[in-house]
Amino acid sequence: MERMTNPMVDAVTTLMAYGTESLNRARQGMEVFENDLNTTIAETPFEVVFEVDRVKLKHYRSEKKRQAFQRPLLVVYALINRETMMDLQPGRSVLETFLDSGRDVYMVDWGYPTRKDQHITIDDHVNGYLNKIVDFVLKENELSTLNLMGICMGGTFSTMYAALYPEKINTLITTVTPTNFDTSEGFLHSWMKELDVDKLIGSWGNMPADVMNLGFLLLNPARLMLDKYNNFARNMGDKDFVENFVRMEKWIFDSPDVPGATFRQFIEDCYQNNLLIKNKMTLGGRTVDLRNITMPILNIYGKKDHLVPPEACNRLISAVGSRDARDLCIDTGHIGIYVSSRSQKQFAPEIIKWLGDREPGGGLSAWASAAQNEPDA
């Protein structure tokens, strides 16, 4: 005769098992937390070679620099969050991969705006800071052009710059870069179209980082808050997991404010009026015409990006004047494109190959040949 089960007994047994499992996890977590944790980010050495106002230029020198790679790569991060995402930790660093390929990297550090920066515009960033930085790098390396890589909002600025100063740019790489803002894909674009910028900027002067972080969390609260911390609770006995988790949290909440005038112009000209892709945006009295971008361009974006969805990125290639223009869609999200183990194997190596193939007098084949002839290759 089959034994009858008692639902209440089964429920209590399940709860007890779950409680025991949770207690064991907590004990393992305490063991991890009682020992020293390495949660340092951005450990790659650099030198600050140029500085104006709050903006700094970091130079990362490759110890494997080869003649095939004469032009350095200038990386322009967004004003939101920090460029340290490119160097989260050894073995999980886009910057490290670039340097290992033999290419010097310059990185823009936008710093932390204060109230006195509230009137700084996109024009000031593109025609002012960025143009001075480009001229410095060109002069320091005795070159007439360089390779420019922009990330997210920094990619939008880089696109504007390449359209205004095409004679200074050898290649342009845009990554998770919004250029078409006429899309309802994702909550962010819908929210920004209805945002009353004057109320925000009128209250604070600059756009506070804490307000932006709250907004980003509300875009997907189940995944970005509940799932994330539940996953942490399940893995807090894993030292490597905890260290990586804390590194990411450090980066997420190391968020500068955005200068008020820049934030206003970015929302009104881009999100609300979509002027950039229409070739109707003006900076410093000059029209930003994307057809002036005739240098090789690689446009990379994430298939699962909830902040800058594919629709916000995939019109750029058809809008530029370059005949050497390529889209690359990677099956990942906005941040995962830089830090996930799968993307690490595709993202930076693809950029290295693409740049090498377009390096005058050298290229990837020359670099690979040189690497094979080295004693430690």
List the helices and strands and how they pair.
Blueprint: H1 7-33, E1 47-52, E2 55-60, E3 73-76, H2 94-100, E4 105-109, H3 122-141, E5 146-151, H4 153-164, E6 169-175, H5 187-194, H6 197-204, H7 209-219, H8 221-235, H9 239-252, H10 260-272, E7 282-283, E8 286-287, E9 297-302, H11 310-313, H12 316-319, E10 325-330, H13 336-339, H14 341-344, H15 347-357, H16 364-373
Parallel strand pairs: 3-4, 3-5, 5-6, 6-9, 9-10
Antiparallel strand pairs: 1-2, 2-4, 7-8
Helix pairs in contact: 2-15, 3-4, 5-10, 6-10
* Major sheet: arrangement of strands: 1-2-4-3-5-6-9-10
CATH-assigned fold name = Rossmann fold
SSE order: HEEEHEHEHEHHHHHHEEEHHEHHHH
End-to-end distance, in Å? 72 Å
Which structural class is indicated by helix and strand composition?
A: alpha/beta
Strand content bin = 5-15%
What's the CATH first level? Alpha Beta
Classified in CATH, the superfamily is Alpha/Beta hydrolase fold, catalytic domain
User: What is the strand tally?
Assistant: 10
Average pLDDT for all residues: 85
Our Rg estimate from Cα atoms comes to 23 Å
**Largest sheet descriptor:** 8 strands, mixed
Q: Tell me the domain tally.
A: 1
What spatial form do the alpha-carbon principal axes imply?
A: globular
Question: Helical residue percent?
Answer: 40-55%
Low-confidence stretches: 362-377
Tally of contiguous helical segments: 16
Task: Label the CATH architecture.
Answer: 3-Layer(aba) Sandwich
InterPro entries: AB_hydrolase_1 (IPR000073), AB_hydrolase_fold (IPR029058), PHA/PHB_synthase (IPR051321), PHA_synth_III_C (IPR010125)
Pathway: Biopolymer metabolism; poly-(R)-3-hydroxybutanoate biosynthesis
Protein name: Poly(3-hydroxyalkanoate) polymerase subunit PhaC
Keywords: Acyltransferase, PHB biosynthesis, Transferase
